[in-house]
C-alpha cells in the first residue's frame, strides 16, 4: 500500500529568490493528488524536493515516518526506493533500448537474475502498451511512447509513491486520457500514493482525488478536489478557465493597472478566447479504473476520510461531494455500500471505438 507523504512549513529559495514558503499539506496514502500552478511557481522544484534532489531550507518532509530533511544519507537512500518518478520527457537513456532502460533500476538496485528481470520488464512493457517495442531506442519512438516507457521504468521497483511531472506535455488529448487512465488503473492495482503535477485542466478536474494549487509563492489550497473545483478564489477561477482576466499575468503576477486595463477591454467586448465564466464550473465525475480492475482502495479510504471532514468544507464542496456520492450509490462515508469502482466506469475502449487507441494502430506500439 502507498505511504502518506506529509509536508510541513516547507520553504525553498535559490539565493535571494524565494520559490515557495510555508507549504503544508498531506498526500493521503494510496490516493491520487494533483498540483496545479502557473509556470514558474516551483512545481518541479517541489517534486525534486520530495525525492531529496533539492533541499528546502526550512520545514519537514515526512515520508513513511522519516523526515528526509533530517535523516542520514543511508535512510534517504532507503526512502528513495519507495518512489517511482515519471519525468516530463521520460528521462530515458538515449543509448539504451527500451528493454534495457526499463531493466536499469532492477539491475542497479536488486540482485534479481536476468530471467526474473525479463519477467518484470515484459510485464511492465505490456502494462504500458509497449510490447513489441522493447528493441527500439528512445530516439526512434514518439513522445507518447517515451512517456509510457518512462512510466514502465518508474514501476519496476513496485513503488509506493509515484510522482508524475506533467504527464500531458507533448501528448495529444486522446493519449493524455489514455495515460491518465493508466495512472488510475495502476493506482487501483498497486494502491500507490500518486502525485501529478499538471497544467492540464481536464486532467486536473477528472483524475485526482485531491487538488492543490501553488501561486504567489504559496500553496493557495490543497484538499478534496471538490474544494478547489468549486472555489471562488480569483486566481483559482482564472487558472481553471485559462483566462487572461484575473490576477495571474504573463510573468506570474500582474499589477492593478494592467488588471484594470484588461477588464476594460473585456467590458468593451474583447474576447480572450477562454470559456465563459459558467463553463468549467462545478465538479465533473471522476475517472474510474477500467472495468475489470480491482476496486481502488484509495477511493474507499478517501470516502471515509472525506466524510469525517465533510462538515468543515465550504458549502459548495460539500454539495458537490454529496451529489457525486449519491449519483454513484455510495453511502455517506459508509464504504460497505460502495459499488465496485469499475461498475460506473465508461465503457472500456470507448475512445478506441472512434478510432484512436493507446497505439496509433491497434496492435502496434507506435505512437
Ligand atoms: N537548480 C535551480 N537553481 C536555481 N533556480 C532554479 C533551479 N531550479 C529551478 N529554479 C527556478 O525555480 C523557479 C520554479 O521553477 P520550476 O521549474 O519548479 O517551475 P514550474 O512551476 O515547474 O514551471 P513549469 O510549469 O513552467 O514547468 C523558476 O524560476 C526556476 O528558474
Describe the model.
This protein is an alpha/beta fold. It has two domains: 5-227, Rossmann fold; 233-279, no CATH class. The protein is built from twelve helices and twelve strands. It has helices spanning 43-50, 73-80, 98-109, 114-127, 143-155, 173-190, 201-206, 225-229, 234-241, 256-267, 297-309, 315-327; strands at 5-14, 17-27, 32-36, 58-63, 66-67, 83-86, 161-165, 193-197, 210-215, 218-224, 248-249, 252-253. The strands form three sheets. Strands 6-7-8-3-9-10 form a six-stranded mixed β-sheet. A four-stranded antiparallel β-sheet has the order 2-1-4-5, with no helix packed on it. It has a two-stranded antiparallel sheet with strand order 11-12. β4 (58-63) and β5 form a beta hairpin. α3 (98-109) crosses α4, α3 (98-109) runs parallel beside α5 (143-155) and α4 (114-127) crosses α5 (143-155). The chain starts with a strand and ends in a 40-residue tail after the last helix. Residues 332-354 and 358-367 have low confidence and may be disordered. The structure holds adenosine-5'-triphosphate (ATP). Adenosine-5'-triphosphate (ATP) is lined by residues 14, 19, 37, 39-45. Adenosine-5'-triphosphate binds at residues 14, 19, 37, 39-45.
Amino acid at each position: 500500500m502507498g505511504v502518506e507523504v506529509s509536508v510541513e512549513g516547507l520553504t525553498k529559495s535559490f539565493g535571494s529568490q524565494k520559490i515557495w514558503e510555508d507549504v503544508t499539506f498531506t498526500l493521503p496514502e494510496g490516493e491520487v493528488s494533483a498540483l496545479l500552478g502557473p509556470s514558474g511557481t516551483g512545481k518541479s522544484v517541489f517534486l525534486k524536493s520530495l525525492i531529496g534532489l533539492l533541499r528546502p531550507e526550512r520545514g519537514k518532509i515526512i515520508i513513511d515516518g522519516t523526515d528526509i530533511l533530517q535523516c542520514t544519507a543511508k535512510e534517504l537512500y532507503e526512502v528513495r526506493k519507495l518512489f517511482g518518478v515519471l519525468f516530463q520527457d521520460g528521462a530515458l537513456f538515449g543509448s539504451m533500448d527500451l528493454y534495457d532502460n526499463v531493466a536499469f533500476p532492477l539491475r542497479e538496485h536488486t540482485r534479481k537474475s536476468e530471467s526474473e528481470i525479463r519477467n518484470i520488464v515484459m510485464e511492465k512493457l505490456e502494462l504500458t502498451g509497449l510490447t513489441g517495442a522493447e528493441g527500439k531506442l528512445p530516439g526512434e519512438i514518439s513522445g507518447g511512447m517515451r512517456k509510457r516507457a518512462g512510466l514502465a521504468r518508474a514501476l519496476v521497483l513496485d513503488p509506493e509513491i509515484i510522482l508524475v511531472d506533467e504527464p500531458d506535455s507533448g501528448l495529444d488529448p486522446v493519449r493524455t486520457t489514455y495515460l491518465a487512465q493508466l495512472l488510475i488503473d495502476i493506482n487501483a492495482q498497486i494502491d500507490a500514493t500518486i502525485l501529478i503535477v499538471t497544467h492540464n485542466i481536464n486532467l486536473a478536474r477528472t483524475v485526482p482525488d485531491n487538488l492543490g494549487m501553488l501561486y504567489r509563492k504559496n500553496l493557495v489550497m490543497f484538499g478534496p478536489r471538490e474544494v478547489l473545483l468549486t472555489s471562488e478564489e480569483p486566481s483559482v477561477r482564472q487558472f481553471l478557465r485559462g483566462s487572461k482576466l484575473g490576477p495571474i499575468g504573463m510573468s506570474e503576477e500582474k499589477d492593478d493597472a494592467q488588471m484594470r486595463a484588461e477588464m476594460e477591454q473585456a467590458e468593451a467586448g474583447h474576447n480572450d478566447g477562454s470559456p465563459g465564466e459558467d463553463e468549467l464550473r462545478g465538479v465533473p465525475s471522476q475517472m474510474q479504473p477500467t472495468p475489470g480492475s480491482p476496486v481502488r482502495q484509495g477511493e474507499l479510504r478517501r470516502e471515509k476520510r472525506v466524510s469525517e471532514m465533510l462538515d468543515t468544507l465550504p458549502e459548495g464542496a460539500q454539495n458537490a461531494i454529496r451529489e457525486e456520492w449519491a449519483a454513484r450509490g455510495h453511502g455517506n462515508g459508509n464504504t460497505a455500500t460502495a459499488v465496485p469502482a469499475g461498475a460506473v466506469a465508461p465503457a472500456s475502449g470507448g475512445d478506441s471505438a472512434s478510432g484512436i487507441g493507446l497505439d496509433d494502430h491497434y496492435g502496434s506500439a507506435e505512437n
